[in-house]
Write a structure and sequence with these properties.
Blueprint lengths: L2 H19 L16 H15 L11 H8 L3 H13 L3 E4 L3 E4 L6 H9 L11 E2 L12 H19 L9 H15 L8 E5 L1 H11 L5 E6 L3 H9 L3 E8 L3 E2 L2 H6 L3 E4 L13 H14 L2 E5 L15 H4 L5 E6 L10 E5 L5 H11 L5 H12 L2 H28 L3 E4 L6 E6 L5 H10 L2 E2 L1 E2 L12 E5 L5 H15 L2
Parallel strand pairs: 3-14, 5-6, 5-8, 8-9, 9-10
Antiparallel strand pairs: 1-2, 4-11, 6-7, 10-11, 12-13, 13-16, 15-16
Helix pairs in contact: 2-4, 3-4, 6-14, 7-14, 8-9, 15-17, 16-17
Bound molecules: pyridoxal-5'-phosphate (PLP).
Length: about 475
């Protein structure tokens, strides 16, 4: 066991012990109309909670007085209940201290562990997870991030004692505006930047703002979470076909006439292709022809390996019809849940009104910490480091795949982002491949859920950002054993 794991366990046990010294707070529902006496209802409540594991061995029961006060019942009722539980061995009495749960063959800590955690199919150590949304903790700039978090409290405590600006902390919005200008050519200012918790949430708010837009042109295949959100909000989703060679088929925009178009031009989800400059200009023109807004989802454009990223659609747009979306989930930390969008001037008043209702959803301390992190240039350093690291990991993954599978797979979608796609030519379907991988302790991910129309027979996504180089090598070896027997 690693030293810091031991440390965590010691702290965990100490906390459990500390908790057990205090009376637990319970809120049983007692039915005063029932023919079952109250003390019996109380007994049932305690027993059920002990069986369920909510009340665990060593926990201290409320005193007779506090429970009778809380529930407005007599102390005698509580006393009868405790006596019965004592007699049946469910609780024990500690002189001058109180009553404690005595139920459970093993100690409460073990009990919680075995009840609270579902037993994994494989021991955790053998699961190699090729999820493209994970970040490897070894790559995370823990030291400098902790410094930023701490500084956010040291310097902004007054600020943190009041609610955040509805659009997010101004300093962060200003730094995001600078960043998207430098990295993506998005010419904007802090006033146009809205910070929100996750792309899905930001998109939901945008749907309310664009209430009049009912027909959404959506890439097929495309990002299923966003598509589901449109459907949930009762928008009509019309597929815009994405061809392997040609990319987005613009003719579909003219034939379906959507009033809102959602695209991932810089790194198509899931195919991994990117829209040419020519196609971007044509897309803007097509949207203008049919009078549609465009949502540009630029979720992982930080990671382009072989070529410079092309300017964003926003940078090329002339009209006030484009909403740009970005996130720190891929480039920094998925659990931060910090995403943003850049709105055209015409939509700002409606968004301002809406945010008075919803308020800001990302913790101000995390926003201010991120602002500090960006201001101290740690963000730029981190991005450069991650680009180098991901290039290395991707090279290892490609080599391992080629070496292990040769012509039995076709690799694509690897020019950007922390994942690659493989078409598996082994006469097995997507589901079978995923299940066989799972049984060998490896997680790989489908693409079929991204399609509205025909799905490819067996194309899988393999992300590498959450893994070490050694994990990648072991993972591909295990996949080979699982698939090519
Ligand atoms: C196409 C696409 N857009 C956006 C996101 C980011 O989502 P979030 O900001 O909720 O992490 C992802 C992440 O997986 C994605 O694949």
């Amino acid at each position: 066991m690693k030293q810091n794991e031991k440390g965590h366990l010691i702290t965990f046990f100490a906390r459990q012990f500390e908790r057990s010294k205090h009376d637990m707070d319970v809120t049983p529902f007692l039915d005063r109309e029932s023919t079952i006496p109250l003390y019996k209802q109380l007994i049932d409540y305690f027993k059920n909670n002990m069986h369920d594991g909510a009340l665990r061995k060593g926990m201290k029961l409320p005193s007779k007085r506090s429970l009778s006060n809380k529930l407005h019942i007599s102390q005698t009722t509580v006393e009868r209940c405790y006596e019965q539980l004592l007699a049946e061995g469910y609780i024990f009495s500690r002189p001058r201290s109180g009553m404690y749960v005595d139920y459970g063959a093993v100690s409460c800590l073990h009990y919680k562990g075995s009840q609270g955690v579902r037993s994994p199919k494989h021991p955790a150590s053998t699961v190699i997870d090729f999820h493209y949304g994970h970040v490897n903790s070894e790559d995370f700039p823990l030291h400098s991030w902790k410094k930023s978090v701490s500084l956010s409290y040291d310097f902004h405590l007054d600020r943190l004692c009041k609610p955040s600006d509805e659009f997010g902390e101004h300093s962060l919005r200003s730094l995001i505006a600078d960043y998207v200008y430098q990295a993506r050519g998005v010419n904007t200012s802090a006033d146009h930047v809205y910070v929100g918790s996750t792309t899905s949430y930001v998109l939901t708010l945008l749907c309310y703002v664009l209430d009049e837009c009912q027909r959404v042109g959506f890439e097929d295949p495309g990002y299923p979470r966003s598509r589901e959100i449109f459907t949930l909000l009762k928008k009509e989703v019309v597929p815009l076909r994405v061809d392997h060679t040609e990319g987005l088929l613009l003719g579909d925009i003219h034939s379906t006439k959507p009033d809102l178009i959602y695209v991932t031009p810089s790194h198509h989800y899931p195919l991994g292709s990117r829209m040419t400059l020519q196609k971007r200009v044509e897309l803007l023109q097509s949207a203008e022809d049919v009078g549609a807004y465009i949502i540009e989802d630029d979720y992982d454009s930080e990671f382009h390996y072989t070529t410079e990223p092309l300017p964003s659609l926003h940078a090329l747009a002339k009209r006030d019809n484009l909403i740009y979306m970005g996130t720190f989930s891929r480039s920094f930390l998925p659990s931060l849940r910090l995403s943003y969008m850049i709105l055209p001037k015409s939509l700002l008043p409606r968004m301002q009104k809406l945010t008075l209702l919803y308020k800001q959803t990302v913790s101000s301390s995390q926003q201010l910490a991120l602002a500090d992190f960006m201001e101290r240039r740690e963000w730029t350093i981190h991005l450069n480091k991650m680009r180098t690291m991901y290039t290395k990991k991707k090279t290892v993954l490609l080599n391992e795949l080629k070496h292990s599978f040769g012509d039995t797979i076709h690799i694509h979608g690897h020019l950007a982002g922390p994942r690659v796609l493989i078409d598996v030519l082994l006469d097995k379907g997507e589901k079978q491949l995923i299940e066989e991988a799972d049984a060998a302790g490896v997680k790989v991910y489908p693409t079929s859920h991204a399609y509205l129309s025909d799905t490819p027979p067996a194309t899988l996504q393999l992300g590498f950002s959450g893994l070490t180089i050694e994990d990648i090598q072991n993972g591909i070896q295990l996949l080979k054993e699982a698939w090519v027997r």
